[in-house]
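Page 42, continued from yesterday. The earlier attempt failed because a stray header line got pasted into the input along with the sequence. Redoing it now with the clean sequence only.
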Amino acid sequence: MPWSVPPLRIGRTWPLGPDAAALRARWDTLVRAADESAREALFQPTRFRGLHTAVSQLPGHTSPTAPLAAETGPCPEPLRVLHGPFDLQWLIPDHRLIDAARPELWRVADEHQIHAVELGRVPQPTVAPAASGTGRLSGSDISGSSGGSGGSGIARDPGPAVVFSALLPDGRSPAGRPCRIRPLFRRPGGREPNLSPGLLDELSRRLDRPVSAQDFLAWVAAAATRRPDGCAVPLPLSPELWDAGTALGRRILWLHTHGARCAPSPGDRPKLPGGQRPYVRAAIPSDLRALPATLHYDPDEQALGLGEGLISPVPGAAWDFHAGGVRVLEHWYERRTAPAAPGTLDAARPATWPREWTSDLLELITVLALLAELRPEQHRLAARLAEGPLLTGADLGRAGVLPAAAATRRPASVLDHHEEGPNGQFALI
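This time it went through. C-alpha cells are written below.
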C-alpha cells in the first residue's frame, strides 16, 4: 500500500470531542467573543492557523472560507471521525481550525473507503503477578480470552498492529510513534486500489483465484504483525491458507468498522450471543462531576464500574484490550471525564452523562470482546504461515510488482469538481 498519509494535526483540542452538542457550544462561544483579542485567546492560534489565516474548504464540506476574525455564522455540522485506535468522536470540519487537515485524505473518504491505520511502535509494558497465579503470555501464546493479569515480567499483548476505519481517522497514537494512514482506494467510488500495480494480478495467478483489493485488506487485517521497523504482512502461496485468512480478516474489518464494511449480511451489527451481552446493571451517575477519574473492573464479577454505575458482563479480554500503547476502555473513559482548564473552549462540555455515551460504550465493549475472541485464530494462522511457503520480496521484484513506482506513493488527481479556495475563490490544484 505505497500511498500513506501522516496523522491529522489539529493544533488545538477544542474542535474535537466526544459530544457534538458541546462542539457547537464551543463554536458559539468563539464567534460571540466580545472582541478580537478575546476570540484569539479562545481560538488558541499557532504558526499554522490564526484568526486571519486564509485557507480553502475541506473537500466535501461547505464551511465558509472567510477569515475567522469576521466569522458570525453557525457551526459547521460536526463530522464523526475515528480518534486514535478505537474512539469514535466528533470533529468540526472547518479547515480554518485544523493546522494540517490532509485534504488528500478527505477527497477519497466515501462510503467505499476503508482506512488502514498502521499503529506506530509502542513501549512493551510488563504486568504484575496475578493473585491466582495465571499468566498472560505474549506473541503466539496469547489466547486473548483470559481476564486475569499476566505473569511477572511477561510482556502484555500490545494489540493489533493495524486498525481499520470506515470513518475518517485522525491517525493519532495515544502512546508511541505517530501512525500512518493508508486508504484502500486512491480515488472516490472505490476506484484505483492503493496497492503496488500488478500485486492483485500476481496474487491471483499464484493462488489460482481472483483476488480483490478488499480481499487483500482482509488478509492484512488477519495476518499483519508489528516489527521494530513497521508492520509486516506475510503473503502465503497456499490457496487454502489464503481463504482461511481472508475469511477471518473480513470479520475483523467488520468489527473494526462497527459493521459499516464487510458485514456477513446487509445491516448486520456486531453483537455478542444472548447472555453474554453487556448491560447497564446500575445506572451511571448523571452528574459528570460525581464520576471517578478512572474506571474500576471486577474480574470475578466481570463488572465495569463507573462510580456507582455498573455494566456487566464485561469479559476480561475486553477490559484488557490494548491498542496504541493504552488500555482502550480506560483511554475512552478518560477522554470523556478528564477535567478541562476553566476559561477555555474545552470547558464547554456536557454537564451530565449523555445517553449516547452509554450506547457507544456498550458497543465498544462488544467490539473488543469479539475481536479478542478472534485472537487465537490469528495466532493459529501465524503458526501455519511460519510453516508454509511464502511469496517473497524477490518474487514480487521479478514479477515487476516491487519496487512500487514513485507516482503510486503520491495522491492521485481526483478533482472532478470545484473546491472553494480562500475567501470564496475557486481552488486551483
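Notes: The first strand starts at residue 16 and ends at 17.
Reminder to self: strip header lines before submitting.
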